[in-house]
């Protein structure tokens, strides 16, 4: 019995080491670059033009999920992102790509993390794909407590994932 438990402990420890190495490798590969926001698609997706390039990069903000443009709060979330980012110089920390081919990353203006700001304003949910609420969960709880943005209404807002489940995407053909 002890050997079995020791084996599991050893396996867990090795898994943690490899996981930590993978995380540090991914962080080392994270590219940081500057550009300017040429278009805001919605509260969590923008088009960013790199210096010297003509074609913009479609960037999906990491760790947030804003309402769909066709759901309640979607227009307000898009307007908030327009105020925060449109035609502004931004810093992008690229973290990879999603299944739709969009770049995933963190976006900041003058050092301010726009994903965190969207959640703080109550214009997006703190979200991390497959893991839950993500790094901005405390900001979301504060926005809910203070009834900011989409949390100001009498009815609880529907998360974009749940909205898509019942209504499909706003962008479906």
Summary of the model, kept short:
The chain has 173 residues and is α+β, with helices and mostly antiparallel strands.
Show the helix and strand layout.
Blueprint: H1 2-29, E1 31-42, E2 45-49, E3 57-61, E4 64-65, H2 74-85, E5 89-97, E6 103-109, E7 112-113, H3 114-120, E8 125-126, H4 137-145, H5 160-167
Q: Could you please describe the fold and organization of this structure?
A:
The chain is built from 5 helices and 8 strands, in the order H-E-E-E-E-H-E-E-E-H-E-H-H. With about 170 residues, it is α+β, with helices and mostly antiparallel strands. Strand 6 and strand 7 form a beta hairpin.
Task: Please describe the biggest sheet, giving its number of strands, its sense, and whether it closes into a barrel.
Answer: 5 strands, mixed, barrel
Spatially, the strands of the biggest sheet line up as 1-2-3-6-5
Give average pLDDT, whole number. 84
Tell me the distance between the termini: 58 Å
Reported by name, the CATH topology is OB fold (Dihydrolipoamide Acetyltransferase, E2P)
Annotation, overall tally of beta strands: 8
